[in-house]
């Protein structure tokens, strides 16, 4: 049998099997809904001294900037209610986040008109790339709270990106810097076989069709 056919045969029709029919349109293909909040990352959970913590803005900007946590907390704060989708096949509906909207920070950054792409830098040595245009919607946050509480260490405290419309690896935890770029460059997972764009509703999981994601991958992870 052709390898691709073999692979496709293995994919079980998971879609929306475990949700009410009126919610089905919110579940991307191949995803399973969970009430859990799985914890996924490379490396150790970083610890911070908030007195010295800062977010660095660099690359295609008029001048490099840094923001302290206090400065970010003094900015207008916004809430986002959204569904989130991880490439390991779990989706979580109706999540609540709070933080600073990227599109409210953006006018303060002196970003050069040539900047078309962004690299989000994060601990530990994590990065992920996005088109700048993907960060300008009202639901893109630099988030510090989840479900009305400060983020837990495991979920990215003090600050993580929230990009609800893309697979969740683009929502970097423990962010340390935002780099503006003229040309696109691949981040950690994008260099390691995952799709550059990562739209869950188009099922853009991998950069090559030879890969597959087992249905039960996320069951092996820690969660809360
Ligand atoms: N800094 C950092 N952020 C990261 C990751 C990581 O390894 N390091 N993993 C990503 C992946 S693959 C996912 S699915 C989400 C998981 O977020 P959660 O642990 O809050 O569910 O974080 C993303 N952000
Ligand atoms: Mo992930």
What is the mean predicted local confidence, pLDDT? Answer: 91
CATH topology value = Sulfite Oxidase, Chain A, domain 2
**What CATH architecture would you give?**
Alpha-Beta Complex
Give the termini separation.
Answer: 41 Å
Briefly summarize what is shown:
By secondary structure, this protein is mainly beta. Helix content is 9%, strand content 29%. It starts with a helix and ends with a strand.
Notes on the protein architecture:
By secondary structure, this protein is mostly beta strands. It has one domain (28-37, 53-223): Oxidoreductase, molybdopterin-binding domain (Sulfite Oxidase, Chain A, domain 2). Helices cover 9% and strands 29% of the residues. It is built from 4 helices and 13 strands. It has helices at residues 3-10, 69-73, 102-105, 188-191; strands spanning 32-33, 38-39, 54-59, 65-68, 78-85, 90-101, 117-122, 126-131, 141-146, 149-150, 160-162, 175-181, 222-223. The strands form 3 sheets. Strands 1, 5, 6, 9, 10 and 11 form a 6-stranded mixed β-sheet that branches. Strands 4-3-12-7-8 form a 5-stranded mixed β-sheet. A two-stranded antiparallel sheet has the order 2-13. The radius of gyration is 18 Å and the shape is globular. The chain starts with a helix and ends with a strand. The model is unreliable at 1-16 (pLDDT under 50). Ligand MTE binds at residues 37-42, 86, 122-123, 126, 155-156, 168-169, 171-174. Molybdenum atom binds at residues 40, 86-88, 168-169.
